[in-house]
Amino acid sequence: MALTSSKQMLQKAYAGKYAVGAFNVNNMELIQGIVTACKEEKSPLILQVSNGARKYAGPIYLRKLVEAASEESGLDICLHLDHGDSYDICAQAIKDGFTSVMIDASHHSFSENIRVTSEVVKLARDHGVSVEAELGRLAGIEDDLNVSAADSSFTNPDQVEEFVSKTGVDSLAVAIGTSHGAFKFKGEPKLRFDILEEIERRLPGFPIVLHGASSVLPKYVDIITENGGAIAGAKGVPEEMLRKAAGMAVCKINIDSDLRLAFTAAVRRHLTLNPSHFDPRQFLLPARDAITEVVRHKIVHVLGCGGKA
Q: Is 104 a catalytic residue?
């Protein structure tokens, strides 16, 4: 099997009323845990790399690990750049062998967002690479991304038709109330499904993406807290809301914080129970298994993409 773009994956997801999981990766154990779950569930798969992951592990290391995962598992995998914030970063990712890129020019004006996105689309088309863009701005902190609540904004449905027609993007990330990081809501969680419905009406058949869509499962928060962690108040997007979105126009759901929490919970618990262990393999093995567990849960209970590979 091979690395592939996300275009056909997301088109099939739209038609099938499910979403493809886009899981952020930084190391071998994360990739192995995710791919094991997707192989077991026969699920389509997007592995995505943030700018922070590129700095941490290096794009070539990550691409080679993903290629190895595709070869070993027999799965077609999309290798996606998450939140590339400039033309140059997207161009480098394409050169590095990524099969999909996100150009996030949402920090610019609407007209500048169109201009920058259009340039990335033009380059990507020459290499068979799919392109995701963003309208609206999600609040929260994740790696190099830090957007305050004051600087965030919902996606304006009045802009989506012009943006998509002028840029030629393959998918569009929207802001309807999700946010980056493990602390998404201070009060009751709420997503603007009215905005999503209007976008779907204006862009029939067009794949929509949700960022900041981890659920911050209490199970892992409790394990971390019980083993010396301090993340009280962490709260994510309820899974029933995400499943509802996946039955609408949302075809790609990004998951990062839930992976970090599951991984850290397993490591903390193992080292608490086994204080004499110092071989990294001893605590990375249960961490890898925890990743498989949480990804299988997402496939079955949130994404609905099992058996769709």
A: no
